[in-house]
Amino acid sequence: MDSTTQLQNALAEAKPTLVEFYKEGCPHCAEQAPIIDELKERVGDKANVITIDGTANPALVEKYHVHSAPTYILFKDGQECWRDGGRKPYSELRDMLDRFM
After folding, report:
1. pLDDT digits over 12-67, tens only?
2. Among this protein's residues, is 81 annotated catalytic?
3. pLDDT category, 73, cuts 50, 70, 90?
4. Structural domain that includes position 80
5. Among positive and negative, which fits the CA dihedral 38, 92, 89, 58?
6. Residue 96 buriedness (CB in 10 A; 0-12 / 13-18 / 19+)
7. How many CB atoms lie within 10 A of CB 65?
8. Which of the four pLDDT bands, split at 50, 70 and 90, describes residue 1?
9. 74 with 18: CB under 8 angstroms?
10. In the annotation, is 29 catalytic?
11. Residue 23: its pLDDT value, please?
12. What is the CATH number of the domain that holds 18?
């Protein structure tokens, strides 16, 4: 499934969706990868956690006004409700998801 379809399907659901826009070769993105993997595993089906390669998906980068990597956008009921970027500890990302679950 391509990233656009995956994101559309996730946003159509009532549960929160956290999207990480990353870029290949970005050192901060590489540092975040295991944190995102842990987050996906621990939240299970209570929330969607999606990673999107910004370089491979320029239309999504433009649509969501992503200007740096990594960028995190949290959606609830299809609407953006939080956005931030840079290195984030697991606890901060989990706390933000928990507020909307």
Report:
1. 999 999 999 999 999 999 999 999 999 999 999 999 999 999 999 999 999 999 99
2. no
3. very high
4. 3-100
5. positive
6. middle
7. 10
8. confident
9. yes
10. yes
11. 96
12. 3.40.30.10
Catalytic residue among 11, 26, 60, 96: 26
Q: Which residues contact 66 (CB under 8 A, 6 or more apart)?
A: 21, 54, 60, 73
DSSP 24-76: TT-HHHHHHHHHHHHHHHHHGGGSEEEEEETTT-HHHHHHTT--SSSEEEEEE
Q: Report helix, strand or coil for 86.
A: coil
Number of domains in the chain: 1
Q: Tens digit of pLDDT for each residue in 43-54?
A: 999 999 999 999
Catalytically annotated residue among 10, 19, 29, 73? 29
Cα atoms in the 13 Å half-sphere on the side-chain side of 62: 4
